[in-house]
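Final report, section 2: Outcomes. Of the targets proposed, ANKY2 protein is the one most frequently requested by collaborating groups, and we therefore present its record in full.
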Amino acid sequence: IFPPNSGNKEITWMMLEAGAETDVVNSVGRTAAQMAAFVGQHDCVTVINNFFPRERLDYYTKPQGLDKEPKLPVKLAGPLHKIITTTNMHPVKIVLLVKENPLLAEVEALQKCYRVLDLICEKCMKQKDMNEVLAMKMHYISCIFQKCITFLKEREDKLDGFIKSLLKGREKDGFPVYQEKLIRESIRKFPYCEATLLQQLVRSIAPVEI
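The predicted structure is given below as tokens.
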């Protein structure tokens, strides 16, 4: 059954939270996301591609192996999950989500969060059913968190300064150069060079001058 074909984002999200598998294929070999895209339900495709079960994040809130402490404090799991599952990937939106939560907007908290994101990214690339889209998203958010840390440490205006830098346009045409450079830098730093998605992004961006 492929409810995304109906275009109902809420039902799609509810089914995902109830444990619906995103990689199961129908009789013609298509997943729910592929079927939704085929019939033009792009909002549902976005919901499916951005879904990340809370349980997968909660795994890092418990000590694993020889660890005495969990990699992610329980209090950070909710705020981080909210950012992970957002469908608006504009860097300013992500920084605003960090800024609005006092638990998250601290250097130590962001350091723990970005390290967990890097672990999830690695898992997405090394699992049997590789998920390049989710891996790239985790890496991208991790890069923004690391830049947040830099501004929190080095700037008096802290995250407000980061937001201003992202929004500031160059004089001749208002183009946000800093924002463009940040996004390109995050793509360049993606550690899995063999990823098809990375190669597609590089091919499309490399010839375009800022």
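The mean pLDDT is 90.
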